[in-house]
């Protein structure tokens, strides 16, 4: 009887802790979005990292959070107009889309923007061609 009660109490506690961690994931994700909107990209990365830690503790899926790093890099490269960072981001996004075509809807517009940023800051025509390919795929799939 006592053992059963202890186990029930332990399970209740674990459920409450999981809820707290899920709230922490949401709070850190919201803080990351707010920091990004304020162009505080380092703070946004710290909040995203905290959300990832909370997700790891609860066993939650980290895929969506992990994808946020790529989108955060893309936003930073676009805002800062860093041609080297834009080139890296564009290539990473295009690799992601090539490796997982279902991610086109999530990354297509951002990839096209990154390719455009590269094209307007340098002469890397290969990425420009890839960017137009992404835009064309978005137009035909939508």
Would you write up a description of this structure?
The chain is mainly alpha-helical and 142 residues long. The chain folds into two domains: 1-60; 70-142. The chain is 87% helix and 0% strand. It has helices at 2-37, 41-58, 63-80, 83-99, 104-121, 125-141. The longest helix is centred in the first third of the chain and has 36 residues, at 2-37. The termini are far apart. 26% of the residues are buried. The mean pLDDT is 76.
Keywords summarizing the entry:
mainly alpha, 2 domains
- Considering DSSP H and I runs of 4 or more, what fraction of the residues is helical? over 70%
Mean pLDDT, as a whole number? 76
Number of helices: 6
Distance between the termini: 60 Å
Shape: globular
- The assigned structural class equals mainly alpha
Give the number of domains: 2
Sheet-strand content, in percent, reads: under 5%
Total beta-strand segments: 0
* Quaternary: single chain
Q: Main β-sheet, in a few words?
A: none
Q: Which stretches are poorly predicted, pLDDT < 50 over at least 5 residues?
A: none
Order of helices and strands: HHHHHH
Q: Work out the radius of gyration.
A: 20 Å
Give a short summary of the structure.
The chain is mainly alpha-helical and 142 residues long. It is built from six helices and no strands.
């Amino acid at each position: 009887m006592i053992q059963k009660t202890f186990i029930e109490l332990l399970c209740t506690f674990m459920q409450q802790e999981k809820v707290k961690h899920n709230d922490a994931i949401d709070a850190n994700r919201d803080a990351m979005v707010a920091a990004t909107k304020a162009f505080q990209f380092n703070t946004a990365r710290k909040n995203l990292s905290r959300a990832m830690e909370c997700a790891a503790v609860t066993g939650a899926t980290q895929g969506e959070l992990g994808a946020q790093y790529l989108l955060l890099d893309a936003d930073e490269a676009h805002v800062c107009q860093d041609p080297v960072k834009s080139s890296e981001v564009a290539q990473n996004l295009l690799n992601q889309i090539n490796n997982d075509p279902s991610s086109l809807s999530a990354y297509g517009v951002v990839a096209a923007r990154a390719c455009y940023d590269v094209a307007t800051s340098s002469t890397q025509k290969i990425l420009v061609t890839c960017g137009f390919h992404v835009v064309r795929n978005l137009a035909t799939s939508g």
